[in-house]
Specification:
It comes from Pacificimonas flava. This protein has nine helices and seven strands; from the N terminus they run βαβαβαβαβαβααβαα. α3 runs parallel beside α4. The mean pLDDT is 95. Bound molecules: nicotinamide-adenine-dinucleotide. Nicotinamide-adenine-dinucleotide binds next to α1.
């Protein structure tokens, strides 16, 4: 069975995790505007989920997305009450800073575990629930919001970087295993996006943007995600510079590590 050429939201039933805020809510809005039939939202932030759900008009699930049973129950309920899911957007995520910016191993192991659970295991739990259904129908799209930190690294947050690299690993594995089954997979990898995740004064927090190439609005990232999926792309990089950095990294890893050390000195 050929891989679908791309994802068209029109008349689709979608689930967006982390949909109460930030990039997830922007994705849900963009999917609705592009003609999606139903967009269900999942988020552990029940307070923000209620108004977001009212605005988007679909089912809401106040769950921890890394809870395998809760993720499976959500997928089953959407399929029973609404219909076959066309898109699962695994978008919820968390960050944890290094305890000592000069030491990548300084954050407590529990911070590494928390990031791994939400930023990677939740994607696997979602895929366990939804991909067999996609496979039965020979159709479906899995969008993983990861980060440029999964391709390059996030200065000041080893727990985040490690978990996002793991998420890239899973998305790649998923993409090539389901490629011949009519199922699409995309990995959305922005640098900085203006959401709660980067704080109230992101320009200050990010030291004048020295370690990022501009802060994008969540709406721009959502638009890039829809465009990338429409084109059937695996890797979606809303910041143009990311692919260039990947090329430099692959061409000379030692030079890249040296460049990151220099950038770390500038930023911190
Ligand atoms: N903001 C950025 O600069 C940036 C850059 C690259 C990638 N990302 C990624 O984009 C995604 C969305 O983040 P955002 O920037 O919109 O941040 P955000 O904090 O605005 O949104 C994240 C959402 O995920 C939810 N969430 C977190 N853990 C959860 C859990 N266990 N179960 C259910 N919901 C949970 C939060 O409640 C929140 O609504 C994340 O995966 C993040 O890592 C963000």
């Amino acid at each position: 069975m050929p891989r679908p050429a791309g994802f068209d939201p029109k008349d689709q039933i979608c689930i967006v995790t982390g949909g109460a805020n930030g990039i997830g809510l922007a994705l849900a809005r963009a999917l609705k505007s592009a003609g999606a039939r139903h967009v269900a939202l999942a988020d552990r932030d029940a307070e923000a989920l209620a108004p977001a759900g009212q605005e988007i008009g679909g089912l809401t699930f106040a769950i921890d997305v890394a809870d395998e049973a809760a993720a499976a129950a959500m997928v089953a309920r959407v399929e029973e009450e609404v219909g076959p899911i066309g898109l699962f957007a695994a978008n919820a995520g968390i960050g944890r800073p290094d305890a000592d910016p000069a030491d990548a191993a300084s954050a407590p192991l529990s911070d590494f575990e928390d990031c791994f659970r939400v930023n990677c295991l939740a994607h696997i739990a979602a895929a366990k629930a939804v991909v067999p259904r996609f496979r039965d129908r020979g159709a479906g799209w899995f969008l993983a919001t990861i980060s440029a930190a999964g391709l390059l690294s996030q200065i000041g947050s080893a727990p985040y970087s490690v978990s996002k690299h793991a998420a890239i690993g899973f998305a790649e594995s998923l993409a090539y295993t389901v490629r011949d089954q009519g199922i699409g997979v995309s990995a959305l990898c922005p640098q900085a996006v203006r959401t709660a995740m980067i704080g109230e004064n992101p320009e200050d927090n990010l030291k004048g943007g020295a370690n990022v190439d501009g802060i994008l609005e969540p709406e721009a990232v959502a638009a890039a995600a829809l465009k990338g999926m429409a084109e059937g792309r695996f890797l979606i990089t809303p910041h143009e510079s990311v692919r260039g950095y990947m090329t430099h990294k692959a061409a000379d890893y030692d030079r890249w590590i040296g460049g990151m050390a220099k950038l770390r000195r500038q930023v911190l």
